[in-house]
Each structure stands twice: as C-alpha cells, then as structure tokens.
Amino acid sequence: MELRVLNYFLAIAREENITKAAQILHVTQPTLSRQMMQLEEELGVKLFVRSNHRVFLSEDGMLLKRRAQELLSLAEKTRRDFIQREEELSGEIVIGSGEFLGTKILTDMLAAFHKKYPLISYQIVSGNGDNIGDYIERGLLDIGFISEPVDIRKYDFLSMPQKEIWGVMVPKDSELAQKGYAEGKDLDGVPLITAARELIQSSIRGWFRAHGSQMNIVATGNLLYNQAMLAESGLGMVLGIKLHSSYGNLTFVPLRPSVEMETAVIWKKDQVFSRAAERFLAFIPQYLEGISDDKNQVLDTSLKGDYNKTIQKGEPETAANQEAHEKETEE
Questions:
Q1: pTM listed for this prediction
Q2: Which residue of 94, 104, 128, 263 lies most exposed, with the fewest beta carbons within 10 A?
Q3: With contact defined as beta carbons under 8 Å apart, do 262 and 219 qualify?
C-alpha cells in the first residue's frame, strides 16, 4: 500500500467523483479507477458505493479514510522532522591547515557553509603536512588542508584552484627588493630560513640545482611569523610562499623562473564521519565548482601574472611598487 495511492483514495472520497479527482491529481480517469480497483483487491474489501454520477465511501471505506488520514499526517510530520534536522544540523568540524594564499578559499567556503548550517562550529588546527596527516590518522582531525603531493594510498583529496608562489622575504631596502625578483645566482649560498618539512625542502632544492646554486639552510620552522623574526634579526632570508601578511621591514619577492605549489583538501579513505563533516565534504566540490564559474571570484594571481608581465617588459619591480600592489590585492 503506497502513500501515493492513499492520497488518490482521499481525493476521491473528498470529491465524490473519480473524474474530478483525476483532474485535481493530474492523472487520467482510467488510471485512477485502476488504482482504486487494485487497492480494493489488496485489502479484500469494497471501498466505494457507486452511483451513476457519484461515488460514496462504504463502511470499510470510511475506516480506511480515517487510517489514510492518520498515515499521511504521520508521513508529513516525518518529512518535516527530517527537514528540521537538516536545518538544525549541528556539531563540530575539526580542520588542520597550513598557511597558504588558498586559505582564503577555505575560509570563504566555511563561511558559506555556516550560512546553511549555523549551528555547526569549527576548530582550525595550524600545522604542516606531516603533523596534519598524523592527526588525521589518529582521528583528531576530520579534514586537512596541505600542500601537494598527497599520499593517495591513505587519503581522498580535492585540489584547490589557488596556486601558491615561492619567493624570499628580504629587507625592503635591499637590492633584491629593488630588483623585484630573485634568481638562482642571487640566492647561491645565502643563509636561508625555510619550512621544516623535508618534502617541501626537497621540492624547492631542485630549483636551486637547476640554476647551479647552493641551498644553504641555517634555520627551519613551521610558523612563518617566527621565521620572519629570525630574518628581521639578520639570520638570513625567509624562503617560502607568498602570504597576505606583512612583517616589519621585510617584503616578498618571487623566484624567477617562478615556482608554483598546489594545495589540496584531504580526508582519510573509508573514514566514518559525523553528519556535519560528511555534509561539509559533500559541500566542498559544489563550492569549488561554483567559484570556478563565478567571474567575480578573483584568485590571487598577482605574482604569477602582473609580476611576470613586469619582468617580461624589463621594468624593475621596486619594493614600493610591490607594497602598493599587495594593498590593492588585499582590498
């Protein structure tokens, strides 16, 4: 016995006419008559008393009418309960994240998701790819946001659209700041402060080798602020990716030729997630597809685009020009 058929039955009981009920239900009269005959056969009773122009409910039909109204009312209440559960979806999503330009996409995504599910809260744990992966394995994180490559044996992932640009943070009054970019010869043997993650070091070490330069790492860390303070104290240059941050007397200049890095949202394969995390994982590809089609969504391509155009034209990029450009980008 289907709810749809019970709804048909109640329409006939209300209209006392199969033709009128069929018009209201947007089905043909023969289809509706056949459905009622099958319902009577299923229940083994006569539900209607038929006359030339009207149909009336039999005694059994009156009983079914009360039961059908109760069943349909319960079905509607159940539907509303699930809608309410959807609107009141709550819980906490724990995300481990590195520091990237693409973090803005992640935070915009969380804000958009929060508008749909305002009772969900978030915990952001800062870290690098190694400890974020470890936390995911231990069940302490639902999702991670790390630099690629991703271990596809352990994780499912979605690549983020924002490209991360490598460069060095140097004093604003330095020759490199006036030059506007750093080549291999500029960094040969220069004391460098960079990320502690070996995978990141090995990926950029290839750029140094390709340009016949020696990579001289004097300090490592997992927080850019601490690295920047070491650079401010004169220990060396910070080798890392561009961020929307400013650190005292330091300014960022990109490597030339440019070095890009991609990032991804990752989660453990075959993991059982909370309803909140499960819903967010379903939301991520929808959001990324939406911003890829949104002409108003501007990814930070300043270093990839405008700086390269400046270089190709042979016009030096000064620290002052770069600072002005960074402010425009942030605005």
A1: 0.63
A2: 104
A3: no
Q: Widest CA span of the chain, in angstroms?
A: 103
- 248: CB partners within 8 A, 6+ apart: 228, 232
CATH for the stretch 164-261+304-330: 3.40.190.10
109 band by pLDDT with thresholds 50, 70 and 90: very high
Phi, psi for 170 (deg, rounded to 5): -130, 160
pLDDT at 315 over 90: no
Tell whether the model's pLDDT for residue 139 goes beyond 80: yes
Alpha helices in the chain (DSSP H): 3-15, 18-25, 29-43, 59-87, 103-116, 129-137, 175-179, 184-187, 198-210, 224-232, 275-293, 306-313, 319-330
Digit-coded pLDDT (tens) for 219-267: 998 888 899 999 999 999 999 999 988 888 999 999 999 999 999 999 9
CATH: 3.40.190.10, 3.40.1260.10, 3.40.50.2300, 3.40.30.10. Which one for 92-161+263-293? 3.40.190.10
Q: What is the DSSP pairing of strand 143-147 with strand 263-268? A: antiparallel
Whole-angstrom distance, CA of residue 61 vs CA of residue 46? 7
